[in-house]
Write a structure and sequence with these properties.
binds S-adenosylmethionine; SAM-dependent_MTases_sf; 22% strand; alpha/beta; Rossmann fold; 7 helices; two-stranded antiparallel ribbon; seven-stranded mixed sheet; globular; transferase
Length: 316
């Protein structure tokens, strides 16, 4: 379960060039220069290289982060030629598109309450508008593989959802749940107790607890699967670096992209949460968020958050 410590890049000169604009000192990272990543276009079939500045889609950027974290894997469950596959809360459908491409003999369904998926997709994939919390119409023992990623804050009744997932999984089939954690860690004490990014994560956790949609911690996903009846359950913890501080090239890229998504994502996500569910004014919430955005760029804070992947098998 415990992931090894990430080796730190000892040479700040190799890190992205710092900027001095808007009072940010040269002890901080910047992503203003081009950092290229492989990115799907709308058709889902091709990849092209875009600069990070062109990437407006947080979900697709997250997909790249998770793909890198999992060493290019789309899942950890030991699948054997799955035929019927379901992706719950598919979002832009990018995972489902990649999965359908990788398993052309599988019939993949991606469901979401929002119809934001592309039209041109692999022929073995279809998207449906569906509320995962409503009663499922799928037949029992139907799917070889059911997948969900980053839907923790969308679900109010996990027990009901897991019951439906279990019913619709074929005996011998697999379910995989993957979710981000929302706790900032550092293994080398480079993150101060009062680090503003850490504090912002804590406040976000507190906020989601008040509406009974807490972020998963270690063991949450495993417990959900076991409680539902799945067996051979495994949970893997990935350390997701915040900022390009790791030495390893792959993790450095992950860290750079996490910094970018956090920069653009905290405000969109946390501002609404803090003002809606806590009693923070817009000014107070904005201050927490701005401080967090500055803190997550600190070169010498080797922070990371967790990404959990858990899978289990329905017994025969
Ligand atoms: C953070 S996004 C994750 C998207 C995708 N799974 C991924 O990892 O790229 C969460 C998605 O869940 C969808 N969602 C929220 N509530 C839902 C529900 N009750 N049933 C199905 N989808 C839901 C949202 O519309 C959103 O697209």
């Amino acid at each position: 379960m415990s992931a090894p410590e990430i080796e730190v890049d000892p040479s700040p000169a190799q890190l992205p060039v710092p900027i001095n604009a808007d009072g940010i000192d040269n002890q901080t990272f910047s992503l203003q220069q081009d950092v290229s990543i492989s990115y799907h276009d709308d058709s889902g079939y091709q990849t092209s290289t875009l600069s990070l500045n062109s990437l407006i889609n947080q979900m697709d950027l997250h997909h790249e982060i998770f793909r890198l974290l999992l060493n290019e894997k789309l899942h950890l469950a030991p699948l054997d030629a799955p035929r019927k596959v379901l992706d719950i809360g598919t979002g832009t459908g990018i995972w489902a598109i990649d999965f359908a491409d990788s398993y052309p003999s599988a019939e993949v369904i991606g469901t979401d309450i929002s119809p934001i998926q592309p039209v041109y997709v692999p022929p073995n994939l279809k998207f449906e508008v569906d509320d995962a919390e409503a009663d499922w119409v799928y037949a029992s023992d139907y799917f070889d593989f059911i997948h969900s990623r980053n839907i923790a804050q969308c679900i109010s009744d996990w027990e009901k959802l897991m019951g439906q997932i279990y019913r619709c999984t074929k005996p011998g089939g697999y379910v995989e749940l993957s979710e981000l954690g929302c706790v900032a860690f550092s293994d080398d004490e480079t993150m101060a107790e009062d680090n503003a990014y850490k504090k912002c994560c804590e406040l976000l956790n507190k906020t989601m607890e008040t509406i009974n949609r807490p972020w998963p911690v270690a063991g949450t996903l495993k417990a959900r699967l076991e409680k539902a009846g799945f067996v051979d359950v495994h949970e893997v913890r990935f350390k997701q670096p915040v900022g390009p501080w790791p030495k390893d090239k792959r993790l450095k890229q992950v860290g750079a992209m996490v910094m970018l998504t956090s920069e653009t994502g905290i405000e969109a996500y946390a501002l609404a949460a803090f003002t809606r569910y806590l009693t923070l004014s817009v000014e107070e919430a904005t201050k927490v968020i701005e401080d967090a955005a500055k803190a997550l760029k600190k070169k010498h804070s080797h922070m990371y958050t967790d990404f959990y992947v858990a899978y289990g098998r329905k017994p025969q």
